[in-house]
Amino acid sequence: MTFDVFLILNSIPTMIEGLGITLKLLFLSTVIGLALAVVTLLMRLSGHWLLTWPAMFYIYIFRGTPILVQIFIIYHGLPQFEFIREGVLWPLLREPFGCCVVALSLNAGAYVSEILRGGVLGVDRGLHEAGKALGLSTPHRFIYITTPIAVRLAIPAYSNDFISMLKATALASTVTLMDMTGVARTIVAKTFAPYEIFIAAAIVYLCFTWTFQRGFGLLERYMSRYVKKDA
Amino acid sequence: MSVIYGWLDEYFWGATVVLKVFGVSLVMAVLFGLIGSAAKLSGNRIAGILAGGYTVVFRGTPELLVILIIYFGSAITLTTVSQAFDPDIQFIDIPPFWAGALAIALVVGAYMTETFRGAFLGVDYGQIEAARALGISNFKTFIYVRMPQMWRLALPNFGNHMLSLMKDTALISVIGLEEIVFVAEIATTVTVKPFTMYAVVAVIYLAITTVLTLAVAGMEKYANRHLETSR
Questions:
Q1: Which of A52, A126, A127, B199 has the fewest CB atoms within 10 Å of its CB?
Q2: Would you call B204 an interface residue with chain A, using a CB distance cutoff of 8 Å?
Q3: Which of residues 27-66 of A touch B (CB under 8 A)?
Q4: CB distance A206–B60 less than 8 Å?
Q5: Domains in chain A: ranges and CATH
Q6: Cβ(A64)–Cβ(B209) below 8 Å
Q7: In total, how many domains does chain B have?
Q8: Range of the domain at B10
Q9: What span, in angstroms and rounded, lies between the C-alpha atoms of A112 and A120?
């Protein structure tokens, strides 16, 4: 057993291809997930049971099951039904990439809507009342008073979720998608050098988590620039 | 639906494997978390750097990659070492159960390190000084003064980490542990009903996570019972 540095250098080009898929998955599913989360959040805040209950059910299901199982149900499971195979979504659900985007987005939507709800609930009631006293309508109060503060409050939790999403993209390799982990697994299967290749992949993931963490830290500082510092 | 009945016993045994992995890795994760947080709070520079490196690496790498590194890495190391003694040996590995349990415990332990650290810091320092003034030994202070108060503060986050640990157990099927995702795979090849089979897995996970969530809520209520009357 030797530690082969050349093996790592040789695998870099194919790894970069896989990295592209990982990042594409990450950004697509965070953007779609965020949209889903906002819709779910509005449903939950609406106060009408016909909207609140489906939203809570959706959150309960997707937060209570492993992402791997969700991916398997969508990728292996859905083609069991005739109407899926003949439906409009089939071109999307036939490809592993589409399935992973769907699964990760649905999962992100459930988690992020809870994070955003935490932010909204953290907004001081007094601000709301002040807005009311100034004669702002409910949508205006939500857009101009609640949203900016809720977003600032939600950023730390959201950055953690974003990083879990990055880590969750590695699961795409279980449905034959050639993301970075998938590429690493194929190279290991060929060369049987797990330490070199997997550790190289892990270092790339670490670089990205570090960069994202720094980025969110700077964003948080920027958004809190007018907040009075304690002590 | 009737196709499920023939597989119920398989799912049952798979579920016991899931619970066993969960139990084993929960114990390990708590241990890693306690050691990590003790190292971070010890004030010793080397221990602090080691614990810091541990949390950065294991919170930034995908769980799947950690499982693969530990399983395949340990297999190749063990094989090489044992071949030095007996050249006839072809392949030796750590059982997937232990490799997987260790891998997810390392990841969740890194998260618990941060949670426990915060909780230990949340215990008023005056309490420790008072214990010292009463001549109570450091060890007894830890057990009787710091731990009981720290648990209460750590519980909400600890509950979340326990849930993610539960959901991470699904990943161990990738290295061939015969738990419920694995059972669903086998059942699918026989019955060609993938959606039904993976849905059963989702329901089992949902049931376990629901019980865990309720248990944590109950524990939180118990831990905070001395605050009830003052409200």
A1: A126
A2: no
A3: 60-61, 63-66
A4: yes
A5: 5-223 (1.10.3720.10)
A6: yes
A7: 1
A8: 2-228
A9: 12
